[in-house]
Amino acid sequence: MGADLRDDADPYALAHFLLQGNLPPPAPLVAQYYRSRDDEGERLSTNCTYELAGPSPDARWWGLAAGADGLSGQVTSAQTVVDPSGRLRIRLSRYPQAENWLELPDAGSFELKLTVAGSGTGDPPAPRFSMSRIEC
Amino acid sequence: MPRLYWLAASLLVAITVHVFYVLFVPAMALERQIERVLTAPEAGKFTVLEAGAQAALFPAFPATSVFGICQFDVAEKDVVVNADLPGGFWTLSIYTQTGKTLYVLNDRQSGTNTFSVRLTKASSLLDAFRETADNDIETAGWKVETSVPEGLAVFWLQPQDMLHRPRVAEALARTTCAPAKS
Questions:
Q1: Which residue, A25, A88, A40, is CA-closest to B106?
Q2: Residue A5 — pLDDT band, cuts 50, 70, 90?
Q3: pLDDT confidence of A2, banded at 50, 70, 90?
Q4: How far is A55 from chain B (nearest CA, A)?
Q5: What domains are defined for chain A?
Q6: In this complex, is the C-beta atom of A101 within 8 Å of any C-beta atom belonging to chain B?
Q7: What is the pLDDT of residues B155-167, one digit of tens each?
């Protein structure tokens, strides 16, 4: 997944959060990952439908948010279904999708934010998701 | 030669401005946001964030999350945070006013949902120069030594769904954050 802004001791990572008026996630228990492009390198657009796929993070809790303000759509580990092999697939679209669905905001480009909370015995696991564009 | 002088001077000014911007402007942005989201920001008052305030401070977290904040100042007196949290996943983070994490604890590390944390000023000059917090377990709970007097104590509780949220928020609202009696 894109940039890892876990280390709040890094003044640039810290500034990323503070300049937007946000508090950084409490490292090392919680990490946040950002992604603004798909696997082809294209900017994420709300006019398209995407599929996020990969092993479900081995974490206490995780939450995925889409949108500039993070409010447009959110799914969490408690709301998603994982297949028997432990693989997670989430469809991202403005329109309802079968199985796991993350609703996208109305228009424009968007950024995906993944928040992962570990158990406290080590760093939260880094996600390994692919992000493919299904249709636009 | 004068050209080299001006080049060096410009470079020095650019570096100074950059360092000032990275170190101070973000902290000022956070301070303004805290003043905006806490309707009555005062040291030693515990506040469970409303939905709008929560989205402003923690936009990547879902609406089901519950956050509670206390602004503390240990310059004059220690501050004691008393919590009796519902079962489930939670974290307590101590931040400096500039957004740096000093200390973090979760439900598994704590082993209990009823506890107290005493926030106190760092005792030695060495501690004052370290931008970290020391902590150890006392009989009454945890003690967190902070090198900077002012900061934020932030609780994050994550209920399973929206149905459980009011009950969790109600339990968190009973948390106290007040200057120590002795």
A1: A25
A2: very low
A3: very low
A4: 21
A5: 3-135 (2.60.120.600)
A6: no
A7: 999 988 888 889 9
